[in-house]
Amino acid sequence: MRRGFREAAFLYALTAAGVAHAIARACAQGRLVSCGCDPLGYRTSLDSRGRARPNKWEWSGCSHNLAYGVDFSRKFLDIREKVDDLQSKINVHNNNAGRSILSSHMEVRCKCHGLSGSCQLRTCWRATPDFRIVASTIKRQYRKYQYFEADPAAGGRIGLDQPLKQACSSLKNHPASVKQMPA
């Protein structure tokens, strides 16, 4: 296929975010033997002198392992794309957009402990958001996608080395220079 459509861009972003989301949660729930809780979720808060900060909460629980989920998503989805193919570069860009949106929506969740729910101590961990939130954000980006045209004089390349932040993109092979079209 030599043409890309914004619907395909939406699906690539949604799929990449969905794979990373599912794997990150599965790691935290102990359903995968190849990973576990996010080790970064257990860092102690430090003050300006580098000493442990006294908190009424602590990192504990099991943070969702987003780093592993994103890495798995990259290896699973991006590996099929060719390095030199323009459509493949667009697909990888859209995959990265979906993973970026998921990463930007990570939450800190806490649970109170104490007599009668007095919250004398809170246990906190990092968690992926409900996937509907991620999907809604990707859908909003889909509605204002970036439209590109390939430049045959430049070997069909477009400027993907400077990725658009959290934007799904689409491609149409046409003998014109690279330009952004209004949605």
Automatic annotation (TrEMBL):
PROSITE patterns (UniProt xref): WNT1
GO biological process, one term: canonical Wnt signaling pathway
Compartments in which it is found: Secreted, Extracellular space, Extracellular matrix
GO molecular function, one term: frizzled binding
Signal sequence extent: 1-22
Protein's UniProt keywords contain tRNA processing: no
Keyword terms: Developmental protein, Disulfide bond, Extracellular matrix, Lipoprotein, Secreted, Signal, Wnt signaling pathway
Any Gene Ontology CC annotation: extracellular space
InterPro entries with a match to the protein in the record: Wnt, Wnt_CS
Principal subcellular localization: secreted
Function in brief: Ligand for members of the frizzled family of seven transmembrane receptors.
PANTHER family, alphabetized: PROTEIN WNT, WNT RELATED
Family to which the UniProt record says this protein belongs: Belongs to the Wnt family.
Protein name, UniProt field: Protein Wnt
Species this protein is from: Leptidea sinapis
